[in-house]
Design brief:
The complex is a heterodimer of chains A (about 350) and B (about 210). Chain A has eleven helices and four strands. Chain A is mainly alpha-helical. Chain A has one domain. In chain A, strand 3 and strand 4 form a beta hairpin. The termini of chain A are far apart. Helix content of chain B is about 20%, strand content about 15%. The chains are: A mainly alpha (about 350), B alpha+beta (about 210). Chains A and B meet through helix 1 and helix 10 of A and helix 1 of B.
Chain lengths: ~350, ~210
C-alpha cells in the first residue's frame, strides 16, 4: 500500500461521490421534466439550458434559508436525522460497479467505490439504515404529522424489506450457481451476466428471474418512498410527512438522500437483473477510449431506464391507501417471493444435480 | 391480474401524453412574457381615447360613457373648446377623463355609448400597479399619442417593452358611420385604434346578396 494505492482509493471514492451528486442534480430536473411532459406542461426551463440548473438554484436557495427547529423538537436527534439519511444513501452506491475495471500505473482498478465481497448484504443493510433517518426525523420533530410519517415508514420498510430480500436471495442463488462459485459481491454478479443465451439474448438475470425482478422493482419503489408508495411523506394527508418540520439545508439533505437512494437502488436493480455494465464494447472497431467508456454508458442507460419507469409510475399512479400498501406487501409480494424462491431453488437444483429419480 | 391490466392502461395514457407533449403538439402552455397567445379581435383590454387623423381629439366631453358605466368608474368633465386652439371638433372636449381600472369590469358599454368613437378598447391587459392610485388612468395614460400608439402607465416596465404595446391592436366599432340607411345594423371592425381609416363597409344590399 503506497501513495498511488491511496490516491486510487481516494479517487474512486471521490468519483462515486461526484457521480451521485451530479446525477441527483440531473435526476431532480429529469423527474420534474418527465412528469411535466406527462401532464402537458413545460416543466422547469428558466435556469440554464433547458432549465438544467434549476436544481442548483433550488439547492442554493435552500442553503441560505433558515433552519427552523420546532420548540418541542429533540434537538440532537433532529439535527442528526438528515445526516443519517444521507450517509447510507451515499454508502449504498459504493459497492456498485459502474464500469469495466481498467489498468492504471500497473494496477487493476475496478470502477466502483469499494470491492466488497458481501456487497449485496451491505446494500440491504444500508437500505434498512435509511429508514432510521425517517423514523428518527418523525419522532424527534415533536410534531404529530412527522410522527405519523415516521410510524408509517417503519411499517412500510419492514413489509417491503422482506420481499426485497427474498427477491434478492433467488437472484443471487441463481447467479451463484450459474457462474463460477457463489458470491455476494456485486462485481461477480455482473461478471456472471456476461455473454449471451443462444447467441443473441444477453445473459441477464432478468430473463430467468423475471418474477424476482418484478418483486424487487416494486419493493425498491416502496423502499425509496416513491409514489405510489409515498405514504411516508403523503403531502395531502400528512403535510410533508417526516420532513414537515425540516427546512433549509436539512430539508435539502433529505431531498438529496431521496434522489441518491433512487439512483443507487436503480443501479443495484440494473446490476442484479440487467447485467450491470455488460454490453457490446466494439473493441478494436472504435478507439480504445470509447470502448473503455462504453460499459459505463451501458450501465447508465440501464439505470436511467429504471429511473424513468420510476418517474413514469409516479406520473401515472395515485397513492395507495395504507391497508392496500400492507396487503400488497404481506399478502402478495412476500408470498410471491417465497413461492418464486422455492420454484427457482427446485429449478436450480435440477439443473445442478439432475432429477432426483435419476 | 385485472389490476395489472389497469396499471398498464394507465401507463399507456401517460406515455402517450408524454410523446404528444415532446414530439407532437400536446403542449398547451404558452410561455407568456416571451410569446403571446393570439387574442380575439374584440378582446376587451384597457381603454384608449382616440384622435382624428388630423390630431384632433374625438372626445367631446359628453359624459355618456360615464352615464353608461355600470361600475361607475369613469369620471369625465367637459370644457368649452378654446376658440383659437380647439382640442376637439365639437363644442366641448374631455378636459378631465379618468377611468378607475380597479373598478372597471371591461364590459365595453362605454365604447357602445360613445357617439364619436372616442373611447375604444385595446388588446392590452397588463395593468398591474404597485399602488391603487396608479390604477386610475387619466388623460395622460388614456389619450393616444399623435403617432397613433397607446401610452403605457409604466413605459420603463420591462413587461411593457415585451408586450404588444408597439402593435396594440384595438378595435373601433361603428354602426352606420356615414348615416346612410343602407348601412343600418352593419358593424365594422378595424385592427388598430386611432384614426378611423377603414375600408368602406359593404352595404346592406351587398350583404344580402
Amino acid at each position: 500500500m503506497d501513495l498511488v494505492d491511496i490516491l486510487i482509493v481516494v479517487g474512486r471514492v471521490l468519483l462515486v461521490f461526484v457521480l451521485l451528486l451530479l446525477t441527483t442534480v440531473f435526476n431532480v430536473w429529469l423527474e420534474r421534466k418527465v412528469v411535466a411532459d406527462m401532464q402537458n406542461r413545460v416543466g422547469p426551463d428558466r435556469a440554464g439550458p433547458w432549465g438544467l440548473l434549476q436544481t442548483v438554484a433550488d439547492g442554493l436557495k435552500l442553503f441560505f434559508k433558515e433552519q427552523v427547529t420546532p420548540a418541542k423538537a429533540e434537538y440532537g436527534m433532529f439535527a442528526l436525522a438528515p445526516l443519517l439519511a444521507i450517509v447510507p444513501a451515499f454508502l449504498m452506491f459504493m459497492v456498485v460497479p459502474f464500469g469495466q475495471p481498467f489498468t492504471i500505473a500497473g494496477r487493476l482498478v475496478p470502477l466502483q467505490g469499494t470491492e466488497l465481497n458481501v456487497g449485496v448484504l451491505f446494500v440491504l443493510a444500508m437500505s434498512s439504515l435509511a429508514v432510521y433517518a425517517v423514523v428518527l426525523a418523525g419522532w424527534s420533530s415533536g410534531s404529530k404529522y412527522p410522527l405519523l410519517g415516521g410510524v408509517r415508514a417503519t411499517a412500510q420498510a419492514i413489509s417491503y424489506e422482506a420481499a426485497m430480500g427474498l427477491a434478492m436471495v433467488s437472484v443471487i442463488m441463481f447467479a451463484s450457481t450459474s457462474t463460477v462459485g457463489g458470491s455476494l459481491s456485486l462485481s461477480d454478479i455482473v461478471a456472471g451476466q456476461a455473454g449471451t443465451y443462444l447467441g443473441f439474448v444477453p445473459r441477464w438475470n432478468i430473463f430467468p428471474q423475471v418474477v424476482a425482478f418484478v418483486i424487487f422493482f416494486l419493493a425498491i419503489i416502496a423502499e425509496t418512498n416513491r409514489s405510489p408508495f409515498d405514504l411516508v411523506e403523503a403531502e395531502q394527508e400528512l403535510v410533508g410527512g417526516f420532513h414537515t418540520e425540516y427546512s433549509g439545508m436539512r430539508f435539502a439533505m433529505y431531498q438529496l438522500a431521496e434522489y441518491c437512494n433512487i439512483f443507487s437502488m436503480s443501479a443495484i436493480c440494473a446490476t442484479l437483473f440487467l447485467g450491470g455494465w455488460n454490453g457490446p464494447t466494439f473493441e478494436g472497431d472504435v478507439p480504445t477510449f470509447v470502448s473503455a467508456i462504453l460499459p459505463t454508458v451501458w450501465f447508465l442507460i440501464k439505470t436511467y431506464a429504471i429511473i424513468f419507469s420510476f418517474f413514469w409510475i409516479r406520473a401515472t399512479m395515485p397513492r395507495l391507501r395504507y391497508d392496500q400498501l400492507m396487503q400488497l406487501g404481506w399478502k402478495r409480494l412476500i408470498p410471491a417471493a417465497l413461492v418464486w424462491l422455492m420454484v427457482s431453488t427446485v429449478a436450480i437444483s435440477v439443473r445442478q444435480f439432475g432429477l432426483p429419480w435419476n | 391480474m385485472a389490476g395489472l391490466g389497469a396499471f398498464l392502461k394507465g401507463l399507456r395514457v401517460t406515455g402517450k401524453v408524454m410523446v404528444d407533449t415532446v414530439f407532437g403538439d400536446g403542449l398547451v402552455t404558452t410561455k407568456y412574457p416571451e410569446e403571446f397567445r393570439p387574442k380575439p379581435q374584440r378582446f376587451h383590454g384597457r381603454h384608449v381615447l382616440n384622435r382624428y387623423p388630423d390630431g384632433m381629439e374625438k372626445c367631446i366631453g359628453c359624459e355618456l360613457c360615464a352615464g353608461a358605466c355600470p361600475a361607475r368608474c369613469i369620471y369625465v368633465r367637459g370644457l368649452d373648446n378654446p376658440p383659437e386652439h380647439p382640442v376637439s371638433p365639437g363644442e366641448r372636449y374631455g378636459y378631465v377623463y379618468e377611468i378607475n381600472m380597479l373598478r372597471c369590469i371591461f364590459c365595453g358599454l362605454c365604447v357602445e355609448a360613445c357617439p364619436t368613437e372616442a373611447i375604444t378598447m385595446t388588446h392590452l391587459f397588463e395593468m398591474s400597479t404597485s399602488n391603487r392610485g396608479d390604477a386610475i388612468y387619466t388623460r395622460n395614460e388614456l389619450l393616444m399619442r399623435p403617432d397613433g400608439s397607446v401610452p403605457h402607465m409604466f413605459p420603463e416596465d420591462p413587461l411593457a417593452k415585451m408586450s404588444e404595446l408597439a402593435t396594440a391592436d384595438g378595435w373601433v366599432r361603428a354602426t352606420a358611420p356615414s348615416g346612410v340607411a343602407a348601412y343600418e345594423g352593419v358593424q365594422a371592425w378595424q385592427g388598430t385604434p386611432g384614426p378611423a381609416s377603414w375600408a368602406p363597409e359593404p352595404t346592406q344590399e351587398e350583404l344580402d346578396a
